[in-house]
Design goal:
This protein has six helices and ten strands. By secondary structure, it is an alpha+beta fold. The longest helix has 21 residues.
Length: about 200
């Protein structure tokens, strides 16, 4: 049993090394989005996910541009929602490149690899993220936004794509101060945006 586990780990590491070496080029794009748009898209996303809202126990993902949702997919597996989004893109002859991805589940390193292959530069997630996911997202050139709530969000990688005409340090939303920079010991930077 132990030998089988070591063999499985060896193949996993080998495939992982191949994937990382293939993905040397990070995503370059002019795509940017304001935090208000992120919150609006997440609100619309939650309105569209019927199975999750009524039954729970499923994950959802959506492909979007800055203004609206394009496709929404629900499935019991997080990875399957990405596959369904890609399938919808193929059927509609629409490139996912330079679009945004919203999801309800945690973003894993494997999901980031799929997202990278789809050339999606901004991923918006309602949950916490793993440290390894944030590091890989930075290397792949993906802006990773997590912990999106009604009035707050955290940006874990490539924060330059989250833009506003208002200075981050003095930004207000509904008359409240909403943004501050947090120095994280694990990352060189992490933006946290909230209404107080």
């Amino acid at each position: 049993r132990n030998q089988g586990s070591q063999q499985h780990r060896h193949w996993y590491d080998h495939i992982n090394n191949i994937l990382v070496s293939v993905m040397e080029q990070s995503i370059e794009t002019d795509v940017s989005i304001a935090p208000e748009q992120v919150l609006t898209l997440m609100r619309r996303f939650h309105e569209k996910v019927d199975l999750k809202r009524f039954g729970g126990g499923v994950h959802a993902a959506a492909l979007a541009d800055k203004n609206d949702l394009i496709f929404v997919a629900e499935d019991i597996g997080r990875h399957n929602t990405l596959d369904k989004i890609l399938g919808e893109c193929i059927l509609a002859d629409l490139s996912p490149k330079d679009k945004l991805l919203l999801c309800t589940g945690r973003i894993s390193m494997e999901m980031l690899r799929k997202i990278y292959k789809m050339q999606i530069p901004v991923v918006i997630c309602q949950h916490f993220l793993t440290g390894n996911s944030a590091i890989l997202a930075h290397k792949l050139g993906i802006t990773l936004v997590g912990r999106v709530r009604e009035h707050s969000l955290s940006v874990y990688s490539r924060p330059e794509r989250i833009v506003s005409s208002i200075n981050w340090k003095r930004w207000t939303f509904n008359g409240k101060r909403v943004c501050r920079l947090i120095d994280s010991p694990r990352f060189s930077w992490k933006w946290f945006w909230e209404s107080k």
